[in-house]
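Standup, Tuesday
Yesterday: got the pipeline producing C-alpha cells again.
Today: sanity-check two examples.
Blockers: none.

Example 1:
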Amino acid sequence: MQTLKKIQKKKRTHVPSRMNMLFFIVFILFSVLILRLGIIQIVNGEDYKKEVERTEDVTVNTSVPRGEIFDRNGTLIVGNKPLNAITYARPKTIAQRDMLKLAEKLSEYVDMDKKEMNLVTLRDRKDYWILKNPQKAANLVTRSEMKNLDNTALYHKQLSRIAKEDLYSIHGKELKNVAIFREMLNGYPLFPHVIKNHNVSPKEYAEVSENLSSLPGINTTTDWERVYPFKAVNENGVLESILGTISSSKEGLPKELLDYYLAHEYSRNDRIGKSYLEYEYEDVLQGHKQKMKNITGKDGGVLHSEIIRPGRRGYDLMLSIDVELQKKVEKILQNMLIKKRPGHRFLDRAFVTMMNPNTGEILAMAGKQLIRGQNGHLKLTDAAFGNLTTSYSMGSVVKGATLLAGYQTGALKPGEVLVDQPLKFRGTKVKKSWVDEGMGPINDLMALKRSSNVYMFRTAMKLGGQMDYIPDGHLRINKMAAIRTLRKQFAEFGLGVKTGIDLPGEQAGFGGMNPGEPGKVLDYAIGQYDTYTPLQIAQYMSVIANGGYRIQPHIAKEIHYPGSRENELGSVAKEMETKILNRVEMKPRWIERIKEGLRKVTSEAGGTAYGYFDSRFKVAGKTGTAQGLYDGPAAGTYWKRNVLPPMTWNTTFAGYAPFNHPEVVISVVIPWAYEGEQKDPHLNLLVGNKALKAYYDLKKQRVQQKQIHPL
C-alpha cells in the first residue's frame, strides 16, 4: 500500500515537469517566430514594400494631341482632328492563345479597314494557323526530329511546313481576326495601343464600350490625327514640305533614337516629328503627357488606374509665314512651270524666298517641282525645302559682294573706272561681258547696272595681285590668294555658309576644289563657280538691304500656350528674337554705294532689270544668269551614253523693296531655265515682279481693313 502511494506521488511530480518542458518549447518557438517577423518587418520591410509596389503599381504615360501651327496672322495651318479609337493595353503576362480569343471576341463588334487587312503578312497567317491548329502543327514534325530540336527550332520547322492551301484558306472573318490579333501583338505591356482609330462607327464605339467588362485590356477613347486646312485631296498643301511629317502610332519611335526619346518620357508607340518643322520643334509641339498609375493583379492585368499627372496638349507654334502670301507665290511658280515647260525641256523647278531683312522673319518660302510619275506623266509637287537643301550656280547676283570685297581689301576704290573690253590671255579663253565688243570705260555703279563681267574679272585680278591687264599677256594672279579672299568676303554675307535657319537639313552649298586654271578664279567673281542655296541669296541681299548685318533667318515667330477654344491661340509663351550673326567689315558708305548700284539695275534705262518691276514698288536688286552643263535629274541618261549633257542657263534675281526703306527681300532661282538663245530668259524677273505685287496687294488690302499686322 505504501509502495502504491509512492508510485502515484512519483507520477504526479513527472507531469508538471513535462508540461513545463512543453510550455518552454512553445515559448521558444513563439520567440523565434516573433523574432523572424520582426526581422521581416523592421529590417527587410522597406525592400519587400518596394517589391510589392514594383510588381503591382506600374506608371505609364498616355499620349496627348500635338500643338497646332498657325501663320503670322493667326490662321491655322496645321491642326488636330479628334478620332474615336479602340485601344488595347495587354497585360504583362498573357498567353497568345488567350490574346487570340480576345481578338476573336472583339471581332464581333469591330470591322477592320481594307488597308489594315492588307497589312497582314504571310508570317501573321502562319502564326494564326499554328495557334488555331496546335495538333496539326505538332504533326508537321516527327518524333525523332522533336528530340533534336529546341522550342525555337521546332517552331520555325513548323512554320516552314504549313501548306499554302491552309494559309490561303484564311479569309473573311478569320482574316479580320488575324488583323486584330496582329495589332494586339504590336503593343507594349500596359501601354494603350491603337487597334482602330479611323472610320470607327458610332455603332462600333458604342458596342465595344458596352462590353468592356468582357474585353479585358480593351478600351474606347479619343485619339487624334493631323489635319491641314490648306490641303485639298490629292493635291499639295501650302508649305507642305516645310511643315514636315509625324510618325504614326504604329511606326512608333525610330530605333536609332529610341534611347534618347525613352529617356525623355516618351512611350515606344508615340508619334513624333519626323522632318522639318514637326521635327525641329518636337519639344514644343509634343505636349505634356498624362501620367497614369496602373494597379496590376497577379496575372499582370490592370485592376485599377489613377491619374497622377493630368496631360496638356503641346504648345502652339506661330510662324513668320504669311499663308496668303505663301499661297499666291506658290500659285505663281505653279503657273510658270506649267505654262513654260513646253519648249524648255529641262525646266522642272523654281524657288522663291521672301523675308524681312531687318528681323530675319521668313514671309514666304515657296518651291515647286515637276516630277515624272510611274505613268510617265509630269506631276507638280511641293519643293519648298529646296530653298535650303539644294544649291546652284547663281551668276551675277553675287556681283555686289565682289565689289564690296574689292573695297574692303583695297583692291578697288569706290568710283574707280575700268575698261570693259574682251580680255585675251595666253592659254585662256577670251573673257568678256555679255556685250561682245565691250562696254568701254565704266565705274562700279555702271558695272552693277549693266552687269559687267569684265569689271568683276578685273577686280578678281587685283585681289590676286595682278593690277594691270596686258592684252595677249599671261594671267599671273595668285589663284589661292584670290579664291581665299573672295570666299572669306562672301562668307560674311552668308554665301557658302549655312544661314542658321531653324529647320533641319540645311546645306552650305558646294565650294568647288581650288581652280586649276586662273580663269576659273575670274569666273568665281561673277557667280559661276561655287553654288549657293536660294536662302543664302536672300540672306546675302538682306545684309546689303539692312546696312551690313547678317541676320539669322527664322520661320518660327512665337510659341503660344494652348488656347481655351479650338483653333485659337493662347497667350505668348516665347517670342523668337532677332539674332545678328555678324556685322560685315564694310564702311557704311560702301554698302550705300552698292545699294545705289542695285537701284540703278531696276530703275534706270540700261539696267538689266529695267522695266520689269512696277515702279510703285521701288525695287532694287541684281539679276543673274549662270551657264553650265545640265546636272539635273535627266543628266544620268547622257553620261550613260558617254555624251556630255547640253549647256543650260540658271536664271536668278535677288533684291529688296522699297529701296529707300527696305522691308522685304526676295530671291528667285530658276535652275536650267533654258538652253542657248531660247526665249524667256527673264523668267526670274517676271516671277519676281508677280511675287512682290502679291506682297504689296496684300499689304494694301490689310491696311484698308485696318488689320494691326498687315505683313
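Example 2:
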Amino acid sequence: MASHRYSFPNKPVANPKAVVAGPHYRFTLLTDRLLRYEWSDDGGFEDRVSTFALFRWFDAPNFRVVEAKDCLEIITDHFHLTYDKKRFSAAGLSVKVANDVWHYNGESYGDLGGTARTLDGAWGRVDLEPGVLSRKAYAVLDDSKSMLFDSHGWIAIRRPGRVDGYVFAYDGDHKAAIKDLYRISGRQPVLPRWALGNWWSRYHEYRASEYLELMDHFKREGIPLNVGVIDMDWHKTQLPPKYGSGWTGYSWNRQLFPDPDGFMKDLHKRGLKVTLNDHPADGIRAFEDQYKAVAKALHHDTSREEPIRFDCTDQKFLDAYFDVLKLTLEKQGVDFWWIDWQQGNQTKIPGVDPLWVLNHYHYLTSRRSLKVIERPLTFSRYAGAGSHRYPIGFSGDTQITWAGLEFQPEFTATASNIGYGWWSHDIGGHWGGVRSNQLTVRWVQLGVFSPIMRLHSTKNLWNSKEPWNFEKEAFKIMKDFLILRHRLIPYLYTMNIRASYSSEPLIQPMYWNHKNPEAYTVPTQYYFGPNLIVAPITSPDNPSTLMGSVRAWLPEGRFVDLFHPHLVYDGGRYMHLHRDLSQLPVLAKEGTILPLDSTPKLANGSPRPTDITILLVVGKDAHFELVEEPEGDDCSDGGDDGPGQPPLSSFVRTPITWRQKEGILTIGPEWNGSGKWRQWNVKLVGHTNTEVQEQVPGFRVTEEDGCTTVALGNVHRWNPEGFEISFGRDLQLDVVGVTGRVFETLHRCEGWYDHKDPVWDAVARSQDPVPTRVERLHRLGVDPSIKNAVMEIWSADSRSVASAKGHELWTDVKNAAETEGIEQVLKDYVIV
C-alpha cells in the first residue's frame, strides 16, 4: 500500500519569529490574539500534527517581550502574558485580555459551550464540551492529551507530562476567533450537493423489496430523497453463540437482501446514494463472507476460526479493513459509511481514541469514491476539537420528547463555537418518548432548517417517520417542508461554499453577529445563513390560540416572516412569535435574496435546477452570489485546500443584485458556467401594494398570500452578459394591517366567546390612547397566550395605524411542560 494513502495537508511547525522559549517553556504567537503555550519537563516540544492543530505556521504578529530573571512578559495589542518561568501554575502564568485575566489551570474553558460526543439516550439537555468562544474576553483550549500524527500521516503519541494549549484572546469578536480556529485546525470541507437534501433512515429489518417500495412510495407522494441509509440489519445479526454479538457484521443478510448488488444498483437508479451502518468493535469473525480474504491479507491463521481483532492502531489491520473488507462492499455499491462507534474511547495505545482514528482514516479513504460522491464524506460521531474536518456528524440516539426537541437547536448552534457545522440529528427522535403529530411536525420543521435533514427512528412497530403514517394535517405539513428542503438546496449549497471558504458556518448563534446582551439570551434562535433568523417552536400548541409560540429577540432593522409575509416586524426588541402548526418563524431582513429551486417536479439526487425563483425582500440593497459546483465537478486533490477541495475560482457563480433606490434587479452574468437554459422568477416577499405589472409589461405577474411573483423566463435569451429589470423605485414591505390580522387570530381562538369582545374592543374599537388600551388588554382576565398573540400583531410594525410598538406588554406564559409536568402534557397534547 502506498505510503501517501493516509497523507493530508498540514504545516505544523510554527514560524520561529513568533516563538518565545526557555529550557522548559515555549510560547508561540500565532496571531496577536491567538497564543500557544507549552511546558515540558524533558525540554522537548511538540511540532507534530495533533488532531486539533494542523497548521501552526502563521505570519509573525507584532509583539513585545519584557524579560527579567524570574519573570517574562509578552505583550500584544490584545493580551498581556505574565509568567514566572516555573512549572505552569495559576499563580505563575496569567494572560490579561481586556478586563479579564486567565490563570492557568490545565483545563479548557469557553462558557458559551461547544458540542458533545453524542446525544445517545438524551431526554433533553446534556453537558457540552467547551468551544473557543466565551462571555469573558478569552477562551482556552487544552490540547495536551490529543492524538498526534507522524510525518507519514500515521498515529503518533505524545510524551507524557507535557502541556500544550491555546488561549483565544478575542474579547467578543467571535467570528474572528472561529476564522483563526479554522486557520490552525483546517477548514470545513465542501459537502456534495446531494448531501444537503432529505435522507431516509430507520433502524428496521427491511427486506430489499420493502425498502425499494418505500423509496417508490416517497416518489409517488412527490417527496424527494437523496440518501438511503441502511441501518445495521443489512448484515447478519442472528449468530451462533460462539461468535458473540451480532452488533458487528460485514456479510449481507441474504434472507433480507438476496441480491445486494442489484439492490444498491436499484437505489442508484432511483437517484439515491447509499450508506451502511458499521459497528466495527468486534472485528472480523469466522462467519463473515470475507473472513478468509482479510485473514490472507493479514497472515492470520484461520484453522481455529479465531476472530481477527479490531485494532485501529495497527496499520496493517486498517489497510486490510479498508482495502479488502470495505472496498469489496464499496464495489458492490456502498457510497459512504455510517461509522456508528459506541464502544468507548480506549485502544491498546494510551491516548488514542478509536473514534478519532475511524473518523480520520475513513474520511481520507473516502477519497477513492469521488467519482460517485464528488467529495470525501463520512457519517460519524463527534470526537473532539478538529472533528469539523470530517463531516457529517451523527449526533446519536435521542429520546422522543419535547425536552429533546427544545435542546436540539441550541445544541446545533453552539456546535459552531468549536467550528462543527454539519450535524445530522435523528429528526423526529430515535427511541422512547411518545407518538405525537405535533412533536414530529415541529421536529421536521427544525430539521429542514438544520445542517442535514435525516428522518430516523428506532426498531419499533409503532415508531417510524413516513409522513403519510401521521394524521392528514401533519402529513401535509411534513410533506411541504420536506419538499421545501430540496427547494432550499441552491441556497444551502452556496452556504456550503461560504462555510468552507469564508469560515462562516451555516448556523450561527445570535451573538456571533450582535454584541447586544440580549443576543445571549435566546439560545434556541439562530442565523441560518447571513440574513435569515430562525426561531423554532419547540413546545406544544396552546389549546386556546391553537398556535405554538416562542420568545425571540430581533436585532435592529425590519424583518418579514417568509412563512407569513403579512407579518413585518421592527427589530431592536424581544417579541413573542406565534405560529400555527403549518409554520415556524423564519425572519428575513430587508435586503434579502434567497434563491429556491422551483423546478415543478423535484427529482431525487438534487440535480441543478432548471427553474429558480428568487425570493426578494425589498427595503434595503441586497446582493447574493449563487454558487454551484464546477462544470464536470473536478474533485482532484485540492493541495493545501484539502482532499477533493477544488479551488474557489472553479465554481460556477451567478451574481444577483438588488438596488433599492432605483428598484432594479440584476441577474448574472454567470461565471464559469455553460449558460444553459434556465427559467427565472422573482417573488417579492411581503410586497403587494404596488402596480408591478405596469413596471414590467410583457411579463406574467401574480399576487398571492402577501407576495408578488414575476415570471422572467430564460434571462440568457436576452443578454448572456447579465439581465436587468426594474420593479419600481424604493419599494417597501407592506404595512401590517393590525385589525384584520387580530380579527383572524381571535376568530380561530378556542374558548369563551364573551372573552373575545373586550380584547377586540381594546385593539380595534377604543379611541383611548394606545398605552391605555395596551394596559387594558394586559389586565383582562383572558388566557395570557391570547393576549400575547394579539400583542405580537399590534406591536409588530411601527408604521401600522395606532401601532403598539414601544408600548407592548407581554404576559409570562411558561412552557406547558414546565408548569404541568410531562404527564399532563402528554395527556393534554399528545395524540397516541
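Quick observation on example 2: Residues 315-332 form the longest helix (18 residues). The first strand starts at residue 19 and ends at 21.
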